[in-house]
Give the backbone structure.
Amino acid sequence: MRRRSVLFGSGLALTAPLLTPSPASASREPLTNLAHLDFLGEQVSPPAQEGHTTYRLASAPAVGMLWTYAEPNPDGTYRRIGGGAYDPATDTYGQGAYNADDVARAAVVYLRHWRQTGAASSRKASYELLRGLTYLQTATGPNAGNVVLWMQPDGTLNPSADPPELPDPSDSGPSYWLARTVWALGEGYAAWRSSDRDFAAFLRQRLDLAIAALQRQTLIRYGEQLHIDGERAPAWLIVDGADATAEAVLGLSAYAEVGGTSAARRALRQFAEGIAALSDGGVREWPFGALRPWALSLSLWHAWGSQMPAALARAGQVLGDPALVRPAITDSAVFTPWLLTSGGPDNGRLPTRTDRTQIAYGVDSRLQSLLAVADATGRTGFRRLAGIVAAWYFGANPAGVPAYDPATGRTIDGIAGDGTVNRNSGAESTIHGLLSMLALDAAPDVIVRGRIVDRAGSVTVEAEQGELGGGAAVVTPPSAWTGESSFSGAYVRMPAGGRIRWRLPASDQPRLVLPVADLQPGSAAVTHWSSLGVVRHGDIGAQGASPAPGALLPVTVGEIASGRTDLVATATGGEAVLDAVMLEPLVSRLVIGGAGHETTLLRSAARTPRTVSVPGPAVIETYDAAGIRRGRVTAAGANARALVLPGGFTLIRG
């Protein structure tokens, strides 16, 4: 894809994508196969329902919908099902058959496929789904602009589902599905404005209605700050989430790029500022430069919905503001290499790898973000990282099996941390798998195929795995969830004088030590970590708007030397609670191999440049902590030395 480049201040070039297709993508069989998504589609003629209508409903009473789930039959085919308990007597589900979240995102798939390939079938499918989505939107009354989440098979809306969703009723306030509706309507208007002006005008009117709802419910708090355990957080994010807000920003960016309204541009800037404010941590401190997804927690990150860097990159392009892009660069250049070398795009780092399940929604969110930041900056290292993320679909995952089948268009519903594969192929996984395939079809040069052959990154040692003394005791809480984070299971309570001694797994390089401590305001407890440093367990602010007092946080105390396996923590001053210890090698790695080739990612947590022995021949590219390439070497021999810069990453292809 060709791009225009415009130079802005501080040396950051923002590039804008053109719609010219890549010549390389036309010479190969496409990965994108819409067959399974088509199978999930349905035409529904809803009954008359107050406050709900859509484009030309009187003359075309059937609208496009999408079944929520799909489960395999014994013969290899799939059956479509809805959400919640099914009642065959009424042909209804506790939740519904179709939902706005998936209808909106499926519309984005068809819109992008239509624009990328010119396919008339995708043009038609996007039209029908956008009609269905706007039927789900409440058009009049006090909730105008909001969206009902669920619809039954016969088209009856179900505003209050079982199990319930928040808000309840589902159109009574801001929601993830309102954010995704803005995403779809923004991309829909941009696509349809030159194809069907009447339909585009309708989409614009409904998008403006959604923006008005966000203004009165969310952006009315613009500039206000929440106080979260002593830290400040924006009060104007959709459902307090940078994740939900990011998806709205994608739609607002598409809308503003082709004109939009002053209200849309203002909403775009305000939401983007809120997302950027959740950039946190650094190369050696949790959460390692990530954009946090939830304003109410300092301890939580999840891969699903993590399109915050993509949103900031697009907003920065459209608004011409490189300051918005910088947090996205840090997330991409510092956090993402840490994520990949420490286990991959898990459903929950809370803050340890509490939920190791990996799903297409998380993988796609990381892939889209890297490609968007690459587009905005012109920095090719982010495209290379995107290929490593996307390798998950081709077998570089905990199961070592393909997660996407180009012959059917199916994406599996997830892979557990132990490698167990969920063979269902519901709407969400199908949608995000296809969004990824569309991106790869447009950028085939980034594709990496293979399986994980080596990974050496973050290691978590549980507190209860140590030798306890001085009254230290293991505690299993009734629930691991604290309200804003999660214990990894049991934890250890240490009274003053309590101690834990661990025999750590050996390592051939120094490692950072990050105790995961339950910090509580007012605590006088201090834990002393061998000769490394201390954790002050009262070093946390007042609860404020946080769901729970205190925070379960990794705290960097120092480095232990290579070969050292003994670690001792001793408590003084009061009672301390420890969940685990995270050990971060100064240089971590991920190796993906297949078909006689290997791709290696090295990530640095060191303060000085380091070199690593790698097999050759190989092409070695060295990037700094901003994703700028600082060196490229072709090593012809059987052995090579790869340079890794402080906080940066190195990519090796052999």
